[in-house]
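Deliverable D5.2: sample structural annotation.
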Amino acid sequence: MSTLDAGFYFVEHENVPMHLGSLALFEGPAPAYADLVKLLAAKLPLVPRYRQVVRTSPLQIFRPVWVDDEHFEIGYHVRHSAIPPPGGDEQLRNLAARVFAQRLDRSRPLWETWFLEGIEGGRWAIISKVHHCMVDGIGGTDLMTVVFDLSPDAAGPAPVTWKPEPGPSVLNLVAGGVRDTVTWPLRQLAGVPGFLTQQLGSAADLLDFGRGLTGSARRLAAPSARSLNGPIGPHRRWAWTTASLTEVKQVRQASGGTVNDVLLAAITRGFRDLLDARGELADELIVRSLVPVSVRGQDERGLITNRVSAVLANLPVGEPDPVRRLALLREQMDDLKSTDQAVGAQLLTEMLGFAAPTLLALGSRAAFRIPQPLVQTVTTNVPGPRFPLFILGRRMERAYPYVPIGDNLRISVAIFSYLDRISFGITADYTAVPDLDILTAGIGRGLAELGTQPADAPHSVRHSSKNSRSESRNSRTKQGISKSKQGSGKSRHGNGKGKSGSGKSGPKRGATG
């Protein structure tokens, strides 16, 4: 495993399942379970990692390795279940939240697919779970396009007989671990000059990077929303909302910046509403987000590993003006990119390769478990395919992303685009965030006040305060954003009668398959 892959493997524990996931919704009718299993089994040769398990050494003396699973059985990984009646969005979200809360079995290949029937309208769905030590967000999208079909009449691959390669003996494992322990740090050290030359190729780049560090340090001094940090339990809430990619791009063209800036501005409004409802909002308050940045080159598409760095961004929740919030985010993200701040995190990850696996394991766990006020959330944006995907001739209508939360970090937001739809998948601790529907609806209002109409608008704002609603009205009046339709509290997002994404069912530990 690479250093980053091993880090994601080591930090997992009973309250922190470290898998990525998605819920894909398909047009009906649902296929037969046996046909789905047969199709996925035939495609496994395209993803060899799906038939491999992780081998570790006692006390993590050596780096974990991948070996073929001699007892692989696809029936264990492809589960079959149904949504409780009436099979609407609320039932679907509740079941998905329970499935996502379950850890993957570390004695088997680290993935699961759940085939779900009983969805209203005759539709069906697939829940996918893949451990973060196998893929990052971009890698997960690559896997999707490999496992799914690109046309409704695609011929299924012919079955291929598979025979597992024998795993290394204890002697070979020890010998390989010793060799890796000696040569890995040397390879990392030899690669540092090339890495720095590639990323910071000139003295001007180096000066810009240093200047950016100063700005980043200054942003760390801003007061952050501490109630978003704290201990978490084993149960999860999960919700989604969507928007039109075309309309988001229109906002970007009118305001400048990037699509990601607009999406971060909408998420900022969601957190603003959440903190306002909790009575914690203040003028200078920020929510600091870890924003993953892909460092995957075009020649690395399809690579089954993590190729990601990250930057820290302050979401200006204390700013009441939506246009000003977007401008602040655009300025900040431009500075982070122009000064190559993602290079710092990437270099730190490379340097961790010097550490012995035991120290890497201990350090990874400590970094996740020790309470920290630095980061309040994760917001990750993964561009998906702009072309339709199919399984057994059925078209995938929508896809909603899942990203895990971590110790002391109670909420995370994933963004995924498919065709012309952008989906926000919001994960939260079940006990600590009973008001998740406020955040979800606030994201929708954030899009609306910038001139973007959310595509589904299923969520309510039952708990949102009068201050938030009047603030939206005042903001529309001041800025003249005529397209904003949802800030008054009488809109589709603000009428208090819609379904929420918080999940009303009890925090059940298991879901049968």
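Annotation notes: Residues 341-364, 457-513 have pLDDT under 50 and may be disordered. The CA atoms of residues 56 and 64 lie 5 Å apart.
The annotation will be released with the project's public dataset once the embargo ends.
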